[in-house]
Amino acid sequence: MAIVDLLNGALRRIPTWVLYIGGIMPAIWLLVLLLNGGLGVDPVKVLEHRAGKIGLQFLIAGLVVTPLCRITGLKLIKFRRAIGLLTFFYIALHLMIWLALDIQFYWGEIWTDILKRPYITIGMIGFLAMLPLALTSNNASIKRIGVVGWRKLHKLTYLAAIAGALHYVWLVKGWQVEPLIYMGGVVLLLAMRIRVKRRRVARI
Predict the structure, then answer these.
(1) What distance in Å separates the CA atoms of residue 114 and residue 98, rounded to the nearest whole number?
(2) Which helix or strand (DSSP H or E) is residue 129 part of?
(3) Calpha distance 132→81 (Å, rounded)
């Protein structure tokens, strides 16, 4: 318990902007690699996929916060909003790279891909689920919607996580291990939340 108290004391002194700066570093590094030809023979695809993967990693990190706090006693909740906004940043970056550099805003091809390619369809569903979360991740929205309504709205995170993991699984060719690990992590974290909710209901 003493170690947890010490860690919580240190966490209280860390401002959230530190997480924003650290979280944006991968994007800057990808830009450096792009400008220096360090992304291989198909830099657009590599940039697009890496941005999406980083976004999925941040999304899973956001899901980890609550169970980690519950299990360890660490007070990490104040960082959850920053993690959520960084998630949206990288997913939006992933989408914009696809639209602007890959498809080059050929809207006919874009709509065809969205409607006929399941991995793109589910990816767009995940992005649309995240959009209201990003728009309401501020104190003014919490006051306007109310804490209860805001928490209900932000359960869209679960849909976004499932959609993002499925998007990754369907995107790759064949049954590769890494996407399945991400999917397994999302399923496990959501299952933990359902189990805790059932325990709370049983106690009532």
Answers:
(1) 12
(2) helix 118-135
(3) 13
For residue 49 the two structure tokens come to: 């996929």
Contact assessment for residue 16 and residue 79, using Cβ atoms and an 8 Å cutoff: yes
AA letter at 147: V
Give the separation between CA 115 and CA 169, rounded to whole angstroms.
18
**In contact, 104 and 147? CB cutoff 8 Å:** no
User: Whole-angstrom Cα distance, residue 198 to residue 25?
Assistant: 39
pLDDT tens digits for range 91-144: 999 999 999 999 999 999 999 999 999 999 999 999 999 999 999 988 888 889
Q: Mind listing the pLDDT tens digit for each residue in 130-158?
A: 999 999 988 888 889 998 898 889 899 99
In 3D space, the residue among 47, 36, 51 whose CA is nearest the CA of residue 101 turns out to be 47
The answer to whether the pTM exceeds 0.85 is yes
